[in-house]
Amino acid sequence: MSRMFRLFTFAAISGALFIAAGPASATHSWSGYHWSRPSNPFTVTLGNNLTSNWTPYLTTAGSDWSITSGACNNPQNPIRCSVTSGGSGGRKCRPTAGRVEVCNSTYGNNGWLGIAQIWVTGLHITQGTVKVNDTYFNTPQYNTPAWRSFVMDQEVGHTFGLAHQDENFNNPDLLDACGRGSCMDYSADPSNNTKPNQHDYDELVIIYGHSDGAAAIAPGASASVGQNVDEDTDNESSWGRPVDFANGRPDVYERDLGGGNKLVTHVIWVQ
Fold first, then answer.
1. Please, what is the Cα angle at 59 between 54 and 60, to 5 degrees?
2. Domain 40-269: which topology?
3. Nearest partner of 46 among 91, 90, 80, judged by Cα
4. How many angstroms separate the CA atoms of 196 and 65, rounded?
5. Among 8-17, 77-86, 192-201, which is the least confidently predicted range?
6. Longest Cα pair distance anywhere in the chain, in angstroms?
7. d(CA 268, CA 252)
8. Who contacts 14 (Cβ-Cβ below 8 Å, separation ≥6)?
9. For 59-92, what is each residue's pLDDT tens digit?
10. What are the backbone dihedrals phi and psi of residue 43, each rounded to the nearest 5 degrees, phi first?
11. Is 0.85 topped by the overall pTM?
């Protein structure tokens, strides 16, 4: 069953319905995974290991996820993105503790457009990677600004602890009050699904509404415990067991790394 977004209105004592008094109730947290941080807002570093044709999409994604002002956004959005030089390089996209490395390569005819991977200890994300597969993005079907933006914004969003609003490619888009679709909503035509919408910002406020009371993991050169930096994690055989399904096939995998550590992979498959 898909984790479909539900919007619940709140009734005033007089019986009038309103939603302006607080954020909408969103329901697309990715199993409660989140970055540890002492306070909000906090910064997630995105390492740019991309070729020049992909770099603008990462820059835009970083800006999209950092928005606080404007209609149908959320001024309490806790996320701020900083796009910096990558610390990985190469198709393996080796992770770096305390940040997200973003890479592209011709990963092959393996069926996936993009994957987001997070290494977690308990519920805390310690590092992440995003990979986009040029084997498909070099084809006419996917080599469009809409598809590139949709997949980049979605995979980056997963590394903050977001799941999908909806996993049906063929139903109407889930729109916010401004008529915007969401990059976290599957769509066969992603032209209106290239960015987050209000429901995504509202969910981030919910995910990060508590206090961890702990310092964020400082970005560093070494990988977290349990990660073999020489291993390819773009291969389905390295992702562990499937734990969630969409459209008849697995889209989330978990691999036990021991000591309370896991590698969790979110996949968007070609259509």
1. 100
2. Collagenase (Catalytic Domain) (3.40.390)
3. 80
4. 7
5. 8-17
6. 63
7. 9
8. none
9. 999 999 999 999 999 999 999 999 999 988 778 8
10. -105, 130
11. yes
Other residues' Cβ atoms within 10 Å of the Cβ of residue 228: 11
Q: Which two tokens stand for residue 153?
A: 């914004």
Backbone angles phi, psi at 203, to 5 degrees: -65, -40
Q: Measured between alpha carbons, how far is 150 from 142 in angstroms, rounded to an integer?
A: 10
Domain residue ranges of the chain, discontinuous segments joined by +: 40-269
Taking the CB of residue 158, how many other CB atoms lie within 10 A of it?
Answer: 27
Tokens encoding 79 = 């996320």
Indicate the pLDDT class of residue 215, thresholds 50, 70 and 90: low
Residue 100 contacts residue 129 (beta carbons within 8 Å)? yes
Q: What is the DSSP string of the chain?
A: ---------EE-TTS-EESTTS------BSTT-EE--SSSSEEEEEEEE--TTTHHHHHHHHHHHT--SSTTS-TT--EEEEEEE-S--STT----TTSEEEEEE---SSSEEEEEEEEEETTEEEEEEEEEEHHHHTSTTT-SHHHHHHHHHHHHHHTTTB--SB--TTSPP---TTS---TTB--SSGGG-SS--HHHHHHHHHHT-S---SPPPPP-SSPPTT--TTS--SSGGGS-EEEEEETTEEEEEEEEEETTEEEEEEEEE--
